[in-house]
Amino acid sequence: MGSAPLQTIIPLLEAEIKNAEQLISICTRKSRFYLLLNGPSYAKCIQTILGSLGQALLRISSSSDGMEISPKLKNKIKLLCNDLQSAQIRVSAAEEDLMDEIELNARNQQADNKYSNELLLKIATLAGVSSDPSSLRHEYNELRKERENLELDKQETEAVRIGRILSLLRFADALSIIIEREKHYQDQRSWINGHILPPLQTFYCPITQDVMEEPVEIESGYTFEMSAIQKWFQEGHSVCPVTKRELQSLSMKPNRLLKQSIEEWKERNAMMKVTAVASRLKSVDEKEILEALLEIQDMCEERPVAKYWVTAEGLIPVLVGLLKSNKRDLRRKTLITLNSLVADHSENKVRTNMFFICKLAFLCVIECMGPV
Fold first, then answer.
1. What are the residue ranges spanned by the domains of the chain?
2. Using one digit for the tens of pLDDT, what is the confidence trace for 107-130?
3. pTM to 2 decimals?
């Protein structure tokens, strides 16, 4: 066993075993959601380790220094080595389809309440996580921690990828308790009374001149929309678009503070729209009511969380009350608005049905009592 060839082979074998142990240790610390979403990279790591182990074992079986290995055993070792080296470790077809779907929608940021719910259940099923809301919230929060750790480790690209996936899931009903969302609205509403605020100048991307969705900072200290600055660099530019000075590095890092400010500005203005539309629904002007109904539909389409805000504002009974109008168009558009509020929102559906039942019960009582 002390021969020179084996002295060089054994350390290689030990190194690969250590790599395998480290991979197992890492996987045991990661959340199930994160392991699923990084399945291809982990599969590649496993395949590399198995291939290296196969090579090391094959070199050991080929060595005759101080070793007596029967031809039969040598043949078995060779077969095992071939299996290890040719092993194809891949994620399932269902997982591959999920990755493709997430990549497409994460890039376009296409998500609403319905899609978030469906995506969350798909991920949970493939990751072997219970569909119980508490379990889903736990895994979601663990995934958020993973993103924070990636940011601390300066792995910006991966952190952005996980951030986009988190954004796709953020509308899922299971991830937040309804009463918490409504309480958040009431707390914010208490101090946001006022007019719609225009965006700050810092919210605009110097390249696109639009309010940024994914602000990233480059070496010069200026912040740009990520897709815009990526395109700038891909076109062969190596200078800052603002200063025109040569950049030593084309690296980008997410400007989380600015993104949070932009989200808070958007949320504040969206809440202000809900507050404003509440008074307009109670107007005697039919045209103003119809405009308010259309605005509620647009808000629910653009920002699904607005469904919770409309409920917290106490507008469901107001909308149900509009159904007694003798104006057919008003009743029709009110029904469309109610449908937009209850679509993929079980709690609003229950509340709306309750108000319908109460309204019908009230009318029946009045009918039975007859004229006073």
1. 4-86, 93-175, 178-281, 284-369
2. 665 566 677 888 888 888 888 888
3. 0.47
